[in-house]
Write a structure and sequence with these properties.
Layout (H helix, E strand, L loop, with lengths): L5 H9 L3 H8 L18 H14 L2 E8 L5 E13 L4 E9 L5 E8 L2 E6 L1 H7 L3 H10 L3 E5 L6 H6 L2 H12 L7 E3 L3 E3 L2 E9 L4 E7 L6 E7 L4 E7 L15 E3 L16
Parallel strand pairs: 6-13
Antiparallel strand pairs: 1-2, 1-12, 2-3, 3-4, 4-5, 5-6, 7-9, 8-9, 9-10, 10-11, 11-12
Length: 270
């Protein structure tokens, strides 16, 4: 019986990478530039420009995302919760599966070039084909897989935890936006903060950016809605350090120990 091959491990580990880029794409409504104006009566473009600067200058963030797409897909994240910084450190959880599909969850920790991932049984069984997922779950159990960013099996998570990559995606998207895209709404409360909604419309979807009414003007939430899906991203804790705690050795298995493992060595393998 063939066990989980390196290529299969790699594909499973890379699955969460798209999550952060999905979040960044919500911010494509940011204009590339804005007119100068009075701080007490900023236009939609001026507020968006101020929020964009705050986001690009942030040294760390707490980012959450919810995806309520109707399509059943175990490989697309439905929920993401990450604390990440510009040094590539992060900690958090991803929940896979949209449209009612169950794709499992992945806990992850990254410090420098070290990475720990702990997928649950459902993740292994849905992300790895055939018996490979079951064998992986049996072999690893309730432990983290530990390695470095140099390992091809874990390299995808470097993108998930990379604040700079997130911001590059933001810049790429906002540079394509036009200053006439945004409409300023009435002030309201979101996540306990007074915000001004900035709405961008096109023929396919509706994107709304919620920017704090008081300076510094920061993006608190971004939403995108169309006929089939709803995405919501929330940003908090600008500048708050990422927790430094990493999994203990007793709670980890080194990824190098998984190569060439005989499937019969899995604790509960049949």
């Amino acid at each position: 019986m063939a066990g989980p091959t390196p290529n299969r491990w790699r594909r499973a580990a890379r699955t969460p990478v798209t999550a952060v880029f999905v979040c960044a794409s919500l911010c494509a409504a940011f204009p590339a530039a804005a007119d100068e104006g009075d701080a007490k009566d900023k236009s939609a473009q001026e507020l968006a420009d101020a929020a964009k600067k705050e986001l690009l200058d942030a040294k760390s963030l707490h980012l959450t995302m919810r995806n309520s797409a109707d399509d059943r897909d175990t490989r697309t994240p439905s929920k993401l919760d990450l604390r990440l910084d510009e040094d590539g450190n992060c900690t958090g959880e991803l929940r896979m599966g949209t449209g009612g599909a169950k794709g499992g969850t992945v806990d992850l920790v990254k410090r420098g070039d070290e990475v720990w991932i702990k997928p649950d049984v459902t993740f292994w069984k849905t992300q790895l084909p055939g018996r490979s997922g079951e064998l992986a779950a049996d072999l690893i159990g309730d432990r983290y897989v530990h390695g470095t960013t140099d390992d091809p099996m874990l390299d995808g998570l470097s993108g998930t935890c990379d604040l700079d990559a997130f911001r590059e995606r933001l810049k790429d998207g906002s540079d394509r936006a036009t200053k006439d895209d945004l409409t300023k709404g009435d002030q309201k409360k979101v996540a306990g903060k007074d915000v001004v909604p900035l709405t961008a419309r096109d023929t396919k979807n509706r994107i709304t950016l919620y920017v704090t009414a008081d300076a510094p003007h920061r993006l608190v939430r971004a939403t995108e809605k169309d006929a089939d899906a709803s995405l919501s991203m929330t940003l908090t804790d600008y500048g708050k350090p990422v927790p430094k705690k990493t999994p203990s050795t007793a709670d980890t298995i080194d990824i190098s120990d998984l190569r060439g493992t005989d499937p019969s060595q899995a604790p509960h393998a049949a």
